[in-house]
Write a structure and sequence with these properties.
- The protein is mainly α.
- Helices cover about 80% and strands about 0% of the residues.
- The protein is elongated, with a radius of gyration of 22 Å.
- The termini are far apart.
- It has a single domain, classed as MFS general substrate transporter like domains (Growth Hormone, Chain: A).
- The mean pLDDT is about 85.
Length: about 190
């Protein structure tokens, strides 16, 4: 949504309206981050990867809402709210997923790679959005690509969750086998 102001002014809206949408987006992002923290604190035993089963589809819906509501003016506030909350949740859960899935001694390197990936994605999204605007005359294709990416990422998280569950089951069975092999200490009594 880096190009939200240009997108809305090209649709005939004022720059003031477009920047107010950007403010709503930023505030909603903050709300999403706070919600993500509250969810993780309440459900600390649940792996964060399972939260992505609803975060990524919400993000896909948010992209669709932007495409559908951009001609309806004030309804874009709703689209920006959903979009901001979804990205806020994503920003909270991504490092937690890394923590849940990685070895604890490699956590710092994993988070730095995650941040690098987010940074490169943010950098490239501006260029890709601009190229799409130059070719098609609007940003709709950029949002359609966002929907596709969110669906693909959801499927990726399903695979990650399945492999994580499999790994945890193997660990539990190993621990159970080990505990059964240990001879019991006999007391003097």
């Amino acid at each position: 949504m880096w190009f939200l102001v240009d997108q809305m002014t090209s649709r005939g809206y004022t720059q003031h309206f477009a920047t107010s949408l950007l403010s709503v987006l930023g505030f909603a992002n903050l709300v999403g981050r706070i919600l993500g923290i509250m969810v993780k604190l309440r459900k600390h035993s649940c792996l964060a990867v399972y939260n992505m089963f609803y975060v990524c589809p919400i993000l896909a819906v948010a992209h669709v809402l932007v495409i559908l509501l951009q001609r309806l003016g004030r309804w874009m506030y709703a689209a920006c709210t959903v979009h901001g909350v979804a990205f806020g949740l994503l920003n909270v859960f991504a490092p937690v997923i890394i923590y849940d899935l990685s070895d604890k001694d490699k956590f710092q390197q994993a988070v730095s790679q995650l941040n690098l990936t987010f940074g490169v994605a943010n950098l490239l999204s501006n260029f890709i959005g601009g190229i799409i605007r130059d070719i098609y005359g609007n940003y709709d294709m950029a949002y359609k690509l966002g929907v596709t990416a969110a669906i693909i990422v959801t499927l990726g998280f399903v695979i990650i969750a399945k492999e994580t569950r499999k790994r945890d089951m193997e660990r539990k069975s190993f621990i159970t086998e080990y505990n059964e092999q240990v001879t019991k200490y006999k007391s003097i009594n």
